[in-house]
C-alpha cells in the first residue's frame, strides 16, 4: 500500500465512522472519525503505518478524555431558559373572578386561567395581583 492509498483509506475509515455517529448520535464515533482524519493527514505527509496508527489512537483518546467529560457536564445542567408551565411559575397575574381555596379565574401571560389559592383560608378579590406558585394541570396555584 503506497502513501496515497493510506491516506485515502484513513478518509474512508473516517467517513465510515461518521455513519454510526449520525445513526446512533454517539459522539465517540465522531471523535474516532477526527482521529482517522488526523491519521490521514500524517499519512499524506509520508509517515509510516506505525506513526499513522499512533496518531489515530492518540488523537481519538485525547478527544474522548477531554471532550467527553465536558459534554457530560453540559448535558447534566438544567436548561437556563424556562419554557411551558415552568416559565409561568413566579409570574404575576391579575384576578378576574374571586380566587379562594375552591377556585376562581386569573389573567396570566395574556390568557385566562382557572386558579385557586395556595392557602385555602385566603381569598383574592377582582383586580388584585397575585403570584403564581405552581401549575397543576390547567389550574394555577396562587398566593
From TrEMBL:
Segments crossing the lipid bilayer: 6-23, 30-47
Keywords from the UniProt entry: Membrane, Transmembrane, Transmembrane helix
UniProt xrefs under Pfam families: NfeD
Keyword Phosphoprotein: no
Primary location class: membrane
Coiled coil, from the record: none
Gene3D superfamilies: Nucleic acid-binding proteins (2.40.50.140)
InterPro entries: Membrane_assoc_protease, NA-bd_OB-fold, NfeD-like_C
GO cellular component, one term: plasma membrane
Entry's localization field: Membrane
Keyword Hydrolase appears in the UniProt entry: no
Membrane association type: Multi-pass membrane protein
Domain NfeD-like C-terminal residue range list: 86-142
Protein's name according to its UniProt entry: Membrane protein
Organism: Streptomyces naganishii JCM 4654
Amino acid at each position: 500500500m503506497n502513501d496515497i492509498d493510506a491516506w485515502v483509506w484513513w478518509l474512508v475509515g473516517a467517513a465510515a465512522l461518521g455513519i454510526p455517529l449520525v445513526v446512533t448520535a454517539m459522539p465517540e464515533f465522531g471523535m474516532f472519525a477526527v482521529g482517522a482524519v488526523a491519521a490521514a493527514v500524517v499519512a499524506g505527509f509520508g509517515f509510516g503505518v506505525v506513526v499513522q496508527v499512533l496518531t489515530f489512537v492518540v488523537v481519538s483518546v485525547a478527544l474522548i478524555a477531554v471532550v467527553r467529560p465536558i459534554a457530560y457536564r453540559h448535558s447534566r445542567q438544567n436548561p437556563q431558559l424556562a419554557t411551558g408551565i415552568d416559565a409561568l411559575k413566579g409570574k404575576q397575574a391579575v384576578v378576574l373572578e374571586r380566587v379562594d381555596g375552591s377556585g376562581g379565574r386569573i389573567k396570566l401571560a395574556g390568557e385566562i386561567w382557572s386558579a385557586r389559592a395556595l392557602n385555602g383560608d385566603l381569598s383574592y378579590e377582582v383586580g388584585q395581583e397575585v403570584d403564581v406558585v405552581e401549575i397543576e394541570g390547567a389550574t394555577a396555584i396562587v398566593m
